[in-house]
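Entry 14. Structure prediction run on the chain below.
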Amino acid sequence: MKALVLETPGNPPRLALKEVPEPALGEGDVLLRVLACGLCHHDLLAMTGVLRRGIPSHAVLGHEICGEIVKVGAAVSRVLVGQKVVPLLTNACGECDRCIADLEHRCQRGQGIGHGLPGGFAQYTCVRDTALVTVPPDMPPEQACLLACPIGVALQAAQNVAGLKAGETAVVTGASGGLGVHALQIAKALGARTIGVTSSENKLNSLMELGVDNVAPVGELDFSEIVLAMTGERGAEVVLDTVGSPLFESSVRCLAQYGRLLLLGEVAGGKAQVNLAELLFRDAIIRGSTGVQRHGLEQAVRMVAQGQVRPVVHATLPLRDILIGVGWMQERKLFGRVALLPNG
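Output returned:
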């Protein structure tokens, strides 16, 4: 089979589309023909060498996968050949204490798909049946591949970790990126007033078409001042920060009393500074959130199927043209995600 192998990280990275052996199946494993795989900023960080920990040499990246089951191991009972599925971001064992406690994304035995294990930048990939969720057969693969990440990731952060409630205000940084456009829709579906923060003024209309209530541009005036003005100086109950260190200090200043800041991404690999008094006098909470649990992914499938969230696909590309998508990402030309088609 063909797979895209990361031979040398860098900017640009050295990638090679080459023939590799088809994955061998264990008793509880499933072989997927990859129908589509999203290009995530996590992949970009690995390709450029910013993210190295836990990534093997000659890695096959790609964790945002939609696939068709073509073969199953002898002990597989949860799924069937021919079904369309999406995996969790972790190859969860389904048996450890965390999996039993519905914390599959923190499985004690599981490795990250497309991180520690070969991922979806290939024609086929192998995962455990305990890490799979079925999707409607009529859902387009380029949309379905976004169900776990970014949609499920955003849902878990907003609903389960931040505890976002109807009537609260939610600010989302990196609003026009692949994670941001879906986090805004999730917050809106949960009944929040949404404020998207973006440095791309040419994407303001696209954000408003998604139903975003307000947009705060990143410019000469700190966007926290705009958020405070929009909220009558109250601030936002929740900030979903998909950018990280470049905007972190301003994100903190957006918070209302007892506000919750959720860090979902770090695009620069840098360090953040913050005036601790800004946290103290707000009684603020700062938490990180990554991954998605099985029930969160199942909920994401339902929300998309019911039209509450629309997967935003900027473009589809064959796997060999991945560097085109990488260039769009680095130049901030994307609105939503690029979906790669390894068998297309």
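DSSP finds eleven helices and 15 strands in the chain.
Filed with the rest of this week's runs.
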